[in-house]
């Protein structure tokens, strides 16, 4: 009799072990599956996303006062920053420039800075463009595409709206309308 | 909480529920429940209970059992095969024109079918989440099936009892019963068995001769290889393990290599291209003629790799330190710190600089009044000449086209440059405007006194390099290697067993193999030579004959 109880005790022990074994194996297999699916879904995602702190950069201020003026992103902390990646050969970029220019004076007062990052090769075309549209907000020139790479920019224009606390509030791919632009600028306006 | 068991009525061994053949003496357990005693035994997994088929209690057991089913596994594989096949009916998204909307493309090109195809996600099948889940489920199924069947089989085969029940032996495919059997014959048998490299196990005069047991592990080794292979593909999602990117670099240019966190830069010192020409060997002559345009024979980039030593923030002048210099030729990449740069594409004859001259419109000889050169990388605005003339570059379109009559550039690269010049003759305040491009010289007012003509240009080539880092290849290789070992193991060896069961009247011999019964039967015949044992018979063949006779 004691033999059978011992045996059955052995059996329940064995079963427990087996349950734990199966549980661990299943957890491992399904986490691998989950990892594969999540990485696959997020693979095409951008390097810099909503909620992130964007990489800092320093670029030449094309329409600044001095010849070699630089703009550093980190120095704009405390302000809302609209970071617009564009190029002169990009038609939709060209279309949204006047909207940015029209809203700039008002929102500069309210503590929002607009920085337009040109990814053109030559400064010549950027200078011409600024003159043509009489742009007053700072335009910086990323002629080596370093910042473009760091931000993982695909199609142009791509615009980041950065909160005063330095995190990204919104990321917009494609051109903006005047209304949408103003809406986003309101979102990143510092609270007084 | 007692587990259901089956007690063998011959030897008293307690077997798990689902066991087909007693684990100790080999008595077929189905005969206890009164089934047909004459059919051959199913020797799959040596009659052990497939683990999952025993109990089904908790949710974990249920999930486990779901995946351990061969039916489920085969269904998953069939589903994956069908969807993979469907994915080849229409081109995948990466092969359709880049500048159109994918949905409209499929709808317009292939009609309703294309529309459904797109909506079901077949346009991007091989990286779609559901396809990946399907493949992953197959992996899970393979893994669980292997554990579930491999472990009991291993236990059964390592604890074999040479002494088997006659009920077991009588239902084997190969069977022989003899009236006489003595020590001399046993010696002869043992000698013959050893000659055929059988391992012999003995218990109370009962013999088990076995060889090639390891062939039974073939499928499990094979599955292990598959699982390692699948893990390898999984690691491709880890950027540390796998990088695949592309960069254009023009001659003389140094650019940041993408996907390296701005750590590495590549300089294109020179790009060389050679085409097949007239003087090629005759064998190529026809092929060259059939092809319009030149055919590249060789192209290479003489490149330098730099590492940025500075800890500067992005955009600041990098502190470049040369780490590697060499040629990148097709199939001969330049390797640095785990990365490889492959020659992958090229664009020849992009303009680098252009030279112009200014002459009077009326001058038939077009004698130059002034000459100047524009560096397309960094054009100057103003050209002042000693003779009082001044030329201002007003507009520069690197890749010009007309957009509703307005010149515009469609890309960054000087492939088709266009210029607007302001010409200021000496002591003139009002400039003459002229537009110059390749083969074009437009005078908007039509009464310009001066004309600007292209005299010369410099070109350069752009090289397209693809960046690869793949640490998953060794894992994939290992997986494929183990897979192959498993295939060979299971294909070229057979697990053969012969049981010798002395009885009061003589001896019963039964044999089993997992494949190649013909070869096995011939081998048994050879083993029987020199003994008076009855030749072994194939019971399956016999019963077939019986049936055909009756």
Automatic annotation (TrEMBL), chain A:
Biological processes, Gene Ontology terms: cytochrome complex assembly
Domain of life, per lineage: Bacteria
Localisation: Cell envelope
TM ranges: 20-38
Keywords: Cytochrome c-type biogenesis, Disulfide bond, Membrane, Redox-active center, Signal-anchor, Transmembrane, Transmembrane helix
GO function terms (MF aspect): antioxidant activity; oxidoreductase activity
PANTHER family on file: THIOL:DISULFIDE INTERCHANGE PROTEIN DSBE (PTHR42852)
Matching NCBIfam families: PRK03147.1
Protein name: Peroxiredoxin
Species, as recorded: Saliterribacillus persicus
UniProtKB/TrEMBL annotation, chain B:
InterPro entries xref list: Cyt_c_bgen_Ccs1/CcsB/ResB (IPR023494), ResB-like_domain (IPR007816)
Residues forming coiled coils: none
Keyword check for Transferase: no
Pfam families named in the record: ResB
Gene Ontology biological process terms in this record: cytochrome complex assembly
Superkingdom classification of source: Bacteria
Residue ranges annotated for the ResB-like domain, each copy included: 71-427, 445-525
Localisation: Membrane
Transmembrane regions listed in the UniProt entry: 63-90, 129-147, 220-242, 471-493
Ribosomal protein as UniProt keyword: no
Keywords (A to Z) from UniProt: Cytochrome c-type biogenesis, Membrane, Transmembrane, Transmembrane helix
Membrane topology qualifier: Multi-pass membrane protein
GO cellular-component term (any): membrane
Protein name: Cytochrome c biogenesis protein
Native source species: Saliterribacillus persicus
